[in-house]
Write a structure and sequence with these properties.
By secondary structure, this protein is α/β, with parallel strands linked by helices. The chain is 37% helix and 12% strand. Strands 1-6-5-2-4-3 form a 6-stranded mixed sheet, sandwiched between helices. Strands 7-8-9-10-11 form a 5-stranded mixed sheet. This is Ganglioside-induced differentiation-associated protein 2 isoform X1.
């Protein structure tokens, strides 16, 4: 290998065989997978999908050599880890990458370092890949298995989210669980494959190729387990079904086995190993507490105390968090495809400050025809991972009528249910094409019903005005919004808008 990583050594992913053709000759002999329990008549939760398989590539080689839009680097919290993947990426990317990582570590770019489960992005510099997505996998201990699973899932999910937000066409994954972090390869591969599979089921149109770059040691595991999540035929699907683990995650691949949903408290007892416990606290401090509701006292008694005004602020917050987590669990469990098909809520680009932009299309909400409780669940389902950082909402009020207006009772219920992150990290709500009536309603609602929101609402009369806060190329809006704006405000050099 050329130590300078000459372009001639980079690998064009379009020349690599897809998963459907990988060892395809084995399928004629009923697959290399062992069969348990004989013939299976029911369909797998990961059914045969040729369109999804066409996006998957399993490749034995160095992820640093791939010419994907982005490749993945596995590192530590200070982004200084020295492992075979990170060292190869550093060598091929050149010294500019090291400078950029030092800025990340110092907090000069985005935020300091990278916490476990998070992802940070830099340029690819001398790589064939345009970007590098850096992530930190968890340190594994069997007694903290649930926390580790959640962290590793977050790594893969956040990387895919980056790819979606940045309109990347391809991503090259290394195996995120490094040897020094001790994550069992088989367990980690289950999480990696099912998370990618679920993402492609929901957002498949946003990615053309996903490459799993593996070593000689890792390839047999991936080769054996890929058919479980990406079966290449109906026969392989049937043969793979009995081999799936009990925990196959929720609709997005996130671990949800109830008996594993435990809370990691800060030093609940004397730690067996102080140094390890401190590191694990840093890794897993974000684990939720909803499964421990039954351990925090009599719920009915707490409700009585709330009514009597005798419950402490901390207890009130715990009660509220438990309530939100119950709604979140419902949102993840229910089929919300009918609400999703309305395309009334979606993530678009970022504003001038780099904050995520969420769009709401009022005319796409047929209030009188849909189950509004399911709409509330869908909002929570979509927004839960968005609100962990600063975000803004653009509400298109364009051409709405009385059948599209969300009443104040619904909005008050939504405000009462969502947790503090929604309100704290919402930095602006742009109300596009307001009417006089909607301005009055908004003022009344933010003044007398929900506190802390009034100063964040900005009424925007034209798209040109909106573009001063959000670059035009960062906003996807329905064609009727553009047509209305041109009709009412005159022609402006607007970007083209995809049909939503």
């Amino acid at each position: 290998m050329d130590p300078l990583g000459a372009p001639s050594h980079f690998v064009d992913i379009n020349t690599l065989p897809g998963w459907s053709n990988y060892h395809n000759e084995d399928q004629s002999s009923s697959s290399h997978l062992p069969i348990k329990g004989g013939k299976v008549d029911v369909r797998s939760p990961f059914p045969y999908r040729e369109d999804i398989n066409a996006k998957i590539i399993l490749w034995r080689g160095d992820v640093a050599l791939l010419n994907c839009t982005a490749i993945v680097n596995t590192s530590n919290e200070s982004l200084t880890d020295k492992n075979p993947v990170s060292e190869s990426i550093s060598m091929h990317a050149g010294p500019d990458l090291k400078v950029e990582l030092q800025k990340l570590k110092a907090g000069l770019v985005i935020s300091t370092g990278c916490r476990t489960g998070e992802a940070k992005m830099t340029k690819g510099f001398n790589l064939a890949a345009r970007f590098i997505i850096h992530t930190v996998g968890p340190k594994y201990k069997s007694r903290y298995r649930t926390a580790a699973e959640s962290s590793l899932y977050s790594c893969y999910r956040n990387i895919l989210q980056f790819a979606k937000e940045q309109a990347m066409s391809s991503v090259g994954f290394c195996v995120i669980n490094t040897v020094k972090r001790g994550y069992p390869l088989v367990d980690a591969t289950h999480i990696a494959l099912r998370t990618v599979r679920r993402f492609l089921e929901i957002h498949g149109e946003t990615l053309e190729k996903v490459v799993f770059a593996v070593s000689d040691f890792e390839e047999p595991t991936y080769q054996k387990m890929l058919p479980l999540y990406f079966p290449r035929s109906l026969a392989e699907e049937r043969e793979s079904l009995p081999l799936l683990p009990e925990d196959i995650g929720n609709a997005e691949g996130e671990p949800v086995v109830p008996e594993r949903q435990i809370r990691i408290c800060k030093k609940p007892g004397a730690p067996e190993d102080n140094s390890d416990e401190e590191e694990l606290e840093a890794d897993f401090s974000f684990i939720g507490s909803h499964a421990f509701a039954r351990m925090e006292g009599d719920v009915d008694k707490q409700r009585r105390l709330i009514l009597q005004g005798q419950l402490s602020e901390a207890a009130l917050q715990k009660q509220h968090q438990r309530n939100y987590n119950r709604w979140l669990c419902r949102a993840r469990a229910e089929d919300l495809s009918d609400i999703a098909s309305l395309k009334a809520l979606y993530q678009t680009g970022v504003d001038n400050c780099g904050r995520t932009v969420m769009a709401v299309v009022g005319r796409n909400i047929p209030v009188t025809l849909i189950d509004m409780e399911k709409a509330l669940l869908y909002f929570i389902h979509v927004m839960d991972h968005i609100v962990v950082k600063e975000y803004i909402i653009v509400y298109f009020h364009t051409l709405t009528n009385v059948y599209n207006h969300l009443d104040s009772d619904f909005l008050k219920k939504l405000s009462d249910i969502v947790d503090v992150r929604y309100k704290r990290n919402l930095k602006a709500l742009y109300f596009v094409h307001p009417t006089f009536r909607s301005k009055v309603s908004t003022w009344f609602f933010t003044t007398f019903t929900v506190s802390g929101l009034k100063d964040k609402v900005h009424h925007v009369e034209s798209l040109q005005q909106l573009f001063t806060a959000i670059p035009p190329e960062q906003i996807d809006f329905p064609p009727f919004v553009l047509e209305y704006d041109i009709r009412e405000n005159g022609y402006y050099s607007y970007p083209s808008s995809p049909d939503l």
